[in-house]
Amino acid sequence: MRIRIVDAFTDRPFHGNPAAVLLFDAAFPPDTWLQQVAAEMNLSETAFAHPLPPGGDADWALRWFTPATEVDMCGHATLATAHVLASGGLAEGLIRFAARCGVLTAETAADGSVTMDFPTSSLTPVEAPASVGHALGGAPILSVHDTAAHIGDLVIELADERTVRELEPDHAALRAFARRGVVVTAAAEDPSRGYDFVSRGFFPAFGIDEDPVTGSAHTALAPFWAERLGRTELTGLQGGARQGLVRVTLAGERTLLGGHAVTVLDGELLTAP
């Protein structure tokens, strides 16, 4: 069975966020097998897709698994899947995916960039949990927002870009929060470098201590920074050791997420469902 590993939200190998992608001819294999493959890949997400009959609301069924569990929404693995379909001649133009979170679309441009259409996440201001400061190593917190109604993250604004970059969180402590993950963010120190804000995402409860570039988190970061910066078109830089760029356009209840992808491995999975 053919398997690819694609670095998403980057145009350079070994940057951005890697995702494994497997395509099936028809229905998905058993969930147990899908989870075993994702655990074996040990990447933030492994994407599985198969074509749907023509005439429906979507063209492909799409699911995402971390090494530990299936997830409701994933941006970088959706981008990776669209890249595989477009580069392999299996789809062109707008691709509609049927996923657990609804129908998502992805469109590949002539330059290879992919633009995805995701639902915008709502942000509810909340008090910082008493233990969050400890979990973040004592970093100064400016604000905390909950996205429980959508992606289920805490979005935490820190003092500056340097604080985000140098953060060394306690992953075991973060695992105790009843959230999908914790996303920390700050305004860019120098927007002339090509990005408007920075972020990092931690998802230890889902088996991911740090996710290099989280597309779905930008459905909350887009409205967060659009309000503060007064613009609806922005670029975010996410990551610690690995980094990637996410272009965002806030369009009301929808957020457009854009980026490039590059295939770094194209091989054969020597097992069958």
Automatic annotation (TrEMBL):
Q: Which GO terms describe its molecular function?
A: isomerase activity
Task: Note the InterPro entries from the entry.
Answer: Phenazine_PhzF-like
Q: Give Gene Ontology CC terms.
A: cytoplasm
Keywords in alphabetical order: Isomerase
Q: Which domain of life is it from?
A: Bacteria
Residues annotated as catalytic: E45
ATP-binding listed as a keyword: no
List the Gene3D superfamilies: Diaminopimelate Epimerase, Chain A, domain 1
In terms of NCBIfam families, this protein maps to: PhzF_family
Stated family: Belongs to the PhzF family.
Which PANTHER family does the annotation name? PHENAZINE BIOSYNTHESIS PROTEIN, PHENAZINE BIOSYNTHESIS-LIKE DOMAIN-CONTAINING PROTEIN
Protein name listed in UniProt: PhzF family phenazine biosynthesis protein
Report the source organism. Answer: Streptomyces subrutilus
